[in-house]
Amino acid sequence: MEKSFKITASEGIHARPATLLVSSATPYKADVQLTYNNKSVNLKSIMGVMAQGIPAGAVVTISAEGPDEAELLNKVEEVIVTQGLGEKC
Questions:
Q1: In sequence order, what are the residues at sequence separation of 6 or more whose Cβ sits closer than 8 angstroms to the Cβ of residue 34?
Q2: Is 14 tagged catalytic?
Q3: Domain ranges (residues) in the chain
Q4: Catalytic position from the list 6, 14, 31, 35
Q5: Which pLDDT belongs to residue 38?
């Protein structure tokens, strides 16, 4: 399963939003990847997410595979939307 989002936060995905995303994904068993500019990183890795250097206006894809993939993607979407980080594409 996967979902795409347009990042609307003016500062992009820096330390605070990266921490929120990693924290939202960590409790789940499914493997989850964040893809930006054809490069994928583990969404459970704060360093991996921050290393992407995702700016405002970027489109990212979050993909999950595992027993609780739907719940994980729903939680990540909730965090992105409610925290003002982005919107679903």
A1: 21, 40, 41, 42, 43, 48, 49, 52, 60, 61, 62
A2: yes
A3: 2-88
A4: 14
A5: 97
